[in-house]
Amino acid sequence: RKLVGKLSTGCIEFNEMMGGGIDTQAITELYGEFGSGKTQVAHQLAVNVQLPPEQGGLDGSVIIIDTENTFRPERIKQMVDGLSEKYGVEYDHEEFLKNIRVARAFNSNHQILLVDSALELANELKNSEKPVRLLIVDSLTAHFRAEYIGRGTLADRQQKLNKHLHGLQRFGDLNNASVIVTNQVMSKPDAFFGDPTKPIGGHIVGHTATFRLYLRKSKGDKRIVRLVDSPNLPDGEAIISVTTPGLRD
Ligand code: GTP
Ligand code: MG
Nearest C-alpha to atom 28 of ligand 1 is from which residue? Predict the structure, then answer.
């Protein structure tokens, strides 16, 4: 078993709440309403993971399983420029984009299969300059939610999600990688999913994800990140800003 790595969020408070950063060999779930910043945090981590450890990175590359077509290369460029400004270094957009491999998942079965493809790719890159140190699934639950409708299918959906999460945990363990998954909270009460403040996927996601982060909107570009039910860290809150050059304190 390798030592757990820490991936910097680029935000002091957020990092401190996480005991230094986002753990490797663990699944971290970002959940919250639409527009709460889940995809923005994921984009920033996809950039940060490529940095050397002195700058909070893991000297690695990233695989993104994109289920809603929300990956934006232009946004990555802005964040890379943000880092250039922050560290006074001329970072190359194209280098960063090259180390982000994006796979579109067309349905939940495809999404599960893509974890196997990710394992293969990570194996190929294992001894390269930029081994895969981050896997992002954005969104973990959207396909499941769309496909499994009606009470009779609930057990089936949870079983599939559970299997998927175990595959993701295995990826994190085998590659000493961080795994980030996003999960939308319903903003309106939903007859099937019940309590609007509870994340989709309910208890199975809750018990498998090692770290659960609840994001909510605050004034302007501010977002509140709450650490919920961590195994080894106190619950807490951190305030971040989603700005043009990226996440900031
Ligand atoms: P869903 O996927 O719909 O559930 O939402 P999400 O939680 O993924 O939200 P997302 O991360 O997409 O956040 C969207 C918000 O981020 C926007 O409302 C903006 O406030 C901010 N944002 C997105 N892109 C930019 C950008 O290029 N510049 C700046 N300054 N802010 C941005
Ligand atoms: Mg999103």
Answer: 244
- State the complex-level ipTM: 0.99
Per-residue pLDDT of 189-214, as tens digits, reads: 554 555 555 666 665 566 677 899 99
For residue 243, report the distance from its CA to the centre of ligand 1, in Å.
Answer: 10
- Secondary element (H or E) of residue 13: helix 12-17
Whole-model pTM: value is: 0.94
Regarding the beta carbon of 24 and ligand 1, being less than 6 Å apart is answered no
pLDDT digits (tens, 9 = 90+) for 57-103: 999 999 999 999 999 999 999 999 999 999 999 999 999 999 999 99
Query: Which residue's CA is minimally distant from atom 21 of ligand 1?
Result: 242
In whole angstroms, give the CA distance from residue 66 to residue 51: 22
Q: How far is the CA of 19 from the centre of ligand 2 (A)?
A: 25
| Exposure letters 148-178 (e unless 16+ CB within 10 A, then b) | beeeeeeeebbebbbebbebbbebbeebbbb
Structure tokens at 139: 């969104």
Q: Which of 36-64 are b and which e, b meaning 16 or more Cβ less than 10 Å from the residue's Cβ?
A: bbbbbbbbbbbbbbbbeeeebbbbbbbbb
